[in-house]
């Protein structure tokens, strides 16, 4: 299985429900084609470098996934057919990159210090 990185831009004017439906359909397309999403990052609305489809801004998403090469053509087809996708790019990652490198990092939470151990500073 190969690792892929996908960056796509969605029309910022669509509602939250529409955006969730689009993400759900993308996940279904990937899973039907024997792919697995490692991480999906919502990067928010950002300004575009130039106008695309009369829009100055777009809602950016970054997806890391694992799957066979045949899956890529179906994902491309999905992006081309959906009118809410402004732009997309799919990149096959190098052989040295592992799935563990792409998984979301969990930062350890510092344990709270009990109030009795906290020293009071007197003046």
Topology record:
Layout: E1 2-10, H1 16-32, E2 36-52, E3 55-67, H2 69-81, E4 85-92, H3 99-102
Antiparallel strand pairs: 1-3, 1-4, 2-3
Q: CATH topology, anyone?
A: Alpha-Beta Plaits
**How far is it from the N-terminal to the C-terminal residue, by CA?**
64 Å
Strand content: 35-45%
Strand adjacency order, main sheet: 2-3-1-4
Q: Write down the oligomeric state.
A: single chain
Helix content: 25-40%
Mean pLDDT equals 86
Q: What structural class do you assign from the helix and strand content? A: alpha+beta
Radius of gyration: 20 Å
Order of helices and strands: EHEEHEH
Overall morphology: globular
Largest sheet: 4 strands, antiparallel
Q: Which regions contain 5 or more consecutive residues with pLDDT less than 50?
A: none
Question: Would you write up a description of this structure?
Answer:
A hairpin with a 2-residue loop joins strand 2 and strand 3. This protein has helices at 16-32, 69-81, 99-102, and strands at 2-10, 36-52, 55-67, 85-92. By secondary structure, it is an alpha+beta fold. It starts with a strand and ends in a 21-residue tail after the last helix. The chain has a single domain, classed as Ribosomal protein S6/Translation elongation factor EF1B (Alpha-Beta Plaits, 2-Layer Sandwich), CATH 3.30.70.60. The chain has a four-stranded antiparallel β-sheet with strand order 2-3-1-4, with helices on one face.
């Amino acid at each position: 299985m190969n690792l892929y990185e996908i960056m796509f831009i969605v029309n910022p004017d669509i509602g939250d429900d529409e955006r969730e439906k689009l993400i759900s359909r993308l996940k279904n397309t990937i899973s039907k084609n024997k792919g697995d999403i490692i991480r999906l990052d919502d990067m928010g609305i950002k300004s575009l470098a130039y106008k695309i489809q009369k829009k100055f801004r777009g809602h950016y998403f970054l997806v890391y996934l694992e799957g066979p090469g045949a899956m890529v053509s179906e994902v491309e087809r999905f992006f081309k057919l959906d009118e809410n996708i402004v732009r997309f790019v799919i990149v096959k990652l190098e052989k040295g990159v592992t799935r563990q490198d792409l998984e979301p990092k969990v930062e350890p939470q510092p344990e709270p210090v009990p109030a009795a151990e906290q020293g009071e500073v007197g003046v």
